[in-house]
Amino acid sequence: MIRLRWRRDRQHARLAGVCAGIARELGVSRSAVRLVALFTLILLPPLALALYLAGWLLMTPQAEIRRWLD
Could you tell me the pTM of the whole model? Predict the structure, then answer.
């Protein structure tokens, strides 16, 4: 059984990192996921906003690794 770890990707985020996190988990480009999100926003605005808000609230941010020398 494959377990997906849905996490927001802050490093490649435009707003909250939801689309970048989904793209990373599915193995597709961030641009493709953002285009699908944009088309959904144009065609079904309430649904798109509800799904994005749910993703923002339910997906935890990806842990950042910091280095001492950066």
Answer: 0.70
